[in-house]
Task: structure prediction
Amino acid sequence: MIYALLIGCVLFLSQGLHAEEYYSPENILRFAEHLYDEGDYLRAASEYQRYLFFSSEDVDQIIYKIGLCYRLCGRPQKAIDWFEKILNEHQESNLLGSAYYQIGYAYLLMGEYEESILKMKEGLGRVKKKEEQVRFQHLIGLNYLKEKQWDNAYSLFDSLKEHDGLRESSLRLKRYAEEGENLSYKSPLLAGLLSSLVPGAGKIYCGRIKDGLYSLFFIGTAGWLAYNGFKVDGENSLKGWLWGIGGGVLYAGNIYGSTIAAKVCNRNLEDELFAKIQIEIDLFK
Result:
């Protein structure tokens, strides 16, 4: 019995020591880093916060890491809240510039381009390192592109093209700004007008040549059949009325479809350009 009690006490104390070791700040931090490296960002954020509860070391770095976790797991507003803690509570931190950048980047991801630009301009007045200031300007330029402020984006990237590390990106983005300024938009009004004059002409104008020719053929055929019916049987011709009504519906649809084709063409032009811009955005996160 005595031996059993002694063994029980030893096991109990051993488990207590292991538990104390497991819950030590060092091991919590090690586990958080492991989760972060594995891409399990939400759980990593929780572990980093648990570490802050037990330790007061490297607080600004841990807060920054928590912000990164939330941004990387698709919760940019939550990330902004944490990065703001560095700006408000750790103004002497070496991570001040990085926190500003991450807030601006998070706003960009949320589509709040004006907020992103304002935060970057605020940061420009608080950071001293030239490389950080250039990086801020680069992010401002990305926001200009997303807002279709092509002239502002072109001028900004033209001024950044000489900086090491940003030369190639700035040249590409400068070219995209120029491309955006000169996109060959199609006029929905003109497309509809052309198709009202010659069925299918509006779709040909939008680059949809086959659709335009199909419209011309079917509407023309319906019109000829209606004409032939009325010519043979007079105004009471069932064939004439059926083909006439059908042709009229096709004609109206052809005009409406041409205006839609112009809008789709314009959207595709922008989508193609913004897809290239998004690649650049992803490179600087």
Notes: Residues 188-269 form one domain. DSSP finds 14 helices and no strands in the chain. The CA atoms of residues 83 and 210 lie 54 Å apart.
